[in-house]
Amino acid sequence: MAKTVTAFIGLGGNVGDVFASMQSALRTLDSHKQISVISTSSVYKTPPWGVEDQDWFLNACVGVETTLTGQELLTECLAAEKSLNRVRDVRWGPRTIDLDVLIYSGERIDTAELQVPHPRMQERGFVLLPMADIAPNLMLKGKSISQWLETLDTSDIQKTELKLIL
User: Which candidate in 17, 88, 91, 95 is catalytic?
Assistant: First the structure.
């Protein structure tokens, strides 16, 4: 029998009805027989990062339990993105939906397709704020999510009234 692990996935987007896309991605993941969504963060409105000349984003994080490997979980996230018309043409550019495997059971994975823990998540308020909603004490590179969050300026990030629901 496959081992069940906990993983965390970041969701974001800034094209179309992003909240509807997030809800759809959440349901797609949870409907997979080897993935169960166990926690959802609040949804945050965040300024663009990387390419700044674009609309603001909505961002959230979810915790899942899964028997999939990290690579298999990434494959399911990419399939969910594709079903929601994700186009990958500009790095950090506009997108309908983005699903990033941030943490996979405390394991370190470093392949061409997948790096976990996500290599830059401790630098990104749009990741740490929603992560702090669902896993504030989770350790990342020797500090908790909450401790990493204290090192960032998140004053331009707005918590919304939106809530992801299965």
Answer: 95
pTM of the model: 0.94
Say yes or no: domain 5-163 is CATH 3.90.1150.10: no
CA distances from 136 to 10, 130, 146 (A): 15, 9, 5
Based on the residue annotation, tell me whether 124 is a catalytic residue of this protein: no
Percent of the chain with pLDDT over 70: 95
Which of 157, 128, 130 has its CA nearest to residue 144? 128
Q: Is 110 a catalytic residue?
A: no
Q: Where are the domains of the chain?
A: 5-163
Residue 7 to residues 74, 78, 114, 159, Cα–Cα distance (Å)? 11, 15, 13, 23
Is 100 designated active site? yes
Note the pLDDT tens digit of each residue in 84-118.
Answer: 876 666 565 678 899 999 999 989 999 999 999 99
Annotated catalytic residue within 17, 30, 91, 98? 98
Q: Is 86 among the catalytic positions?
A: yes
Among 88, 89, 100, 124, the active-site one is 100
Residue 140 and residue 121 in contact, taking contact as beta carbons nearer than 8 Å = yes
Q: Which of 17, 30, 86, 88 is catalytic?
A: 86
